[in-house]
Amino acid sequence: MGERELNHRVPEFYCCYLLRSVQKKQSFYIGSTPNPVRRLRQHNGILTNGSAYRTKKTGLRPWEMIFCVYGFTSKIAALQFEHAWQHSYHTHFIDDEERIVKNKTSGRSLHHKLGNVRLLLKNPFFQYMDLLTHVFDEEAFRVWNQNRFKLSSCAEMTVSDFDDVADASSLQVSENPGNSENSDDPSLANLKFVEKLFADILAQHRKNIERQQKFLSHGKLVCGVCHNFFNYMDENDSERRSKPLVAFCPAENCNFVSHLNCLHRVFLDDEQLDRGARTLIPKSGNCPFCEKVVSWPVIVKYSTCIRDCNELGKAAKDL
Ligand SMILES: [Zn+2]
Ligand SMILES: [Zn+2]
């Protein structure tokens, strides 16, 4: 698989993050990564490989990851968000009338950094991805809620368990038992929060993929919408690309499965009935079996992940 294809496929996890220097609270850094744990360790010099040059400057380490946005549908999309966040004074992802940072040198406070995230999340391009946010830091959570610029935003947010700080900071960093890090270091507690989010999301993602693959391995399946049969596991299928994209209901105890195209049509029809207008891409819809509201981008993400997994598996077998 070429780099171009890798950049466009749906990653298990990809986030844009905000770092703040523990020593100088007004110093921030915006970046993006598929592995925030490894990345944070690189920024703090715990891992020496990797190229976290800009955060090497003396007097700024350690860095804490205080906020992140995740759920990007490709590496490219995450890089676009990162670039827009870093260049919020002129990015086209923010409307001029709404812009809160007018030039390069303004907008250095946490209020501005988080305000810009709210503005980017409102952009239809990013909104379509149904991005999620997480706050690892109490002050950042307060600033977010304060919402100084009175901006509306529509992404779901989760928050680390700040009461857990004492427990977290007393733990040693497991992969580096002989290190000289001070266990009172607040950045260690922060690293634990980042590890927890990353582990939780990956576990959830892998559980879903596993469940869906098991389903597909049964062979002959009936589309829950058009009621036609399809067999995802058919090895005689010579055209790899001809396999239909499959939609699953993400609800754990629901067995709905259909052609992705079929569910797409159902969601658009429902939306049209609801609003009287037909769009090209639905935002969400009700599962035809369990009737739960499910996010369309999430269904598409899993659908393409499953196809990629199967292609990778097949490619490996072909070698
Ligand atoms: Zn169908
Ligand atoms: Zn369902």
TrEMBL record:
Q: Could you tell me the superkingdom of the organism this chain comes from?
A: Eukaryota
Function, as annotated, reads: Catalytic subunit of the SLX1-SLX4 structure-specific endonuclease that resolves DNA secondary structures generated during DNA repair and recombination. Has endonuclease activity towards branched DNA substrates, introducing single-strand cuts in duplex DNA close to junctions with ss-DNA.
**Cellular component per GO?**
Slx1-Slx4 complex
Example GO BP: double-strand break repair via homologous recombination
Q: Which organism is it from?
A: Lachancea meyersii CBS 8951
Q: Which GO terms describe its molecular function?
A: 5'-flap endonuclease activity; crossover junction DNA endonuclease activity; zinc ion binding
| Assembly description | Forms a heterodimer with SLX4.
User: Keywords for this entry?
Assistant: DNA damage, DNA recombination, DNA repair, Endonuclease, Hydrolase, Metal-binding, Nuclease, Nucleus, Zinc, Zinc-finger
- Localisation per UniProt entry: Nucleus
Record protein name field: LAME_0C07338g1_1
Family recorded in the similarity comment: Belongs to the SLX1 family.
This protein's record includes keyword Ubl conjugation: no
Where does the record place the GIY-YIG domain? Answer: 12-95
| Cofactor (UniProt) | a divalent metal cation
Sorted alphabetically, which HAMAP family does this protein's record hold? Endonuc_su_Slx1
